[in-house]
Amino acid sequence: MEIREATPDDAQTVNEELLEPGFRETAAVDPEFSELDEAGVADAGIDRWLDDADRVIFVAERDSELAGHIAGIRNDSPPIYARGPYTHVDGLYVKPDYRREGVASALFERIEAWARERDCEYLGVSAHVDNEAAVAMYDDAFERKYLSYRRPVGDE
């Protein structure tokens, strides 16, 4: 398996085979909160990760087929903290046929190396509480630091 940075030539395949299915799986976990805007899905792409030194998207390729992707962004910590920059993973998807074969772990290793090259001190990721596979993987590989809560803003 090869882990490499995505290129503009990958755009259509990444969009159709990785991003869109990932969006749809996320929406299925929590349809009310993650309802998709189809125009937004149609416009989504890898452009925001290309040509930006603080963003990256890596793809996993096996037998000339894309098996998954991971995307991230380098952020500076707020100046009130004595910690350095960090990388947040803002997208991860592995095709069902390649799951439980180490693809996600290899993608995480690569983005961690990218973060280290950019002097980041931490790597962070989020998962929906009902995404049991992701929660289990992240509980094994990361230290829980925060929980996130949300509720709809209602009429009074």
Describe the structure.
- The protein has 156 residues and is an alpha+beta fold.
- The protein has a single domain, classed as Gcn5-related N-acetyltransferase (GNAT) (Aminopeptidase).
- Helices cover 32% and strands 23% of the residues.
- It is built from four helices and five strands.
- The chain has helices spanning 11-29, 38-43, 103-117, 132-141; strands spanning 2-5, 55-62, 65-75, 86-94, 122-125.
- Strands 1-2-3-4-5 form a five-stranded mixed sheet.
- The chain is globular.
- The termini are far apart.
- The model has no long low-confidence stretch (mean pLDDT 92).
Task: Explain the layout of strands and helices.
Layout: E1 2-5, H1 11-29, H2 38-43, E2 55-62, E3 65-75, E4 86-94, H3 103-117, E5 122-125, H4 132-141
Parallel strand pairs: 4-5
Antiparallel strand pairs: 1-2, 2-3, 3-4
- Reading off the top of the CATH hierarchy, the class is best stated as Alpha Beta
Rg, nearest Å: 16 Å
Strand order of the largest sheet: 1-2-3-4-5
What is the string of SSEs from the N terminus onward?
EHHEEEHEH
CATH architecture: 3-Layer(aba) Sandwich
CATH H-level superfamily: Gcn5-related N-acetyltransferase (GNAT)
| Anisotropy-based shape | globular
Helix/strand/pairing category: alpha+beta
The main pleated sheet reads as: 5 strands, mixed
SS strand fraction: 15-25%
Please provide the count of β strands.
5
Tell me the number of structural domains.
1
Average residue-wise pLDDT: 92
Q: Whole-Å distance between the termini?
A: 54 Å
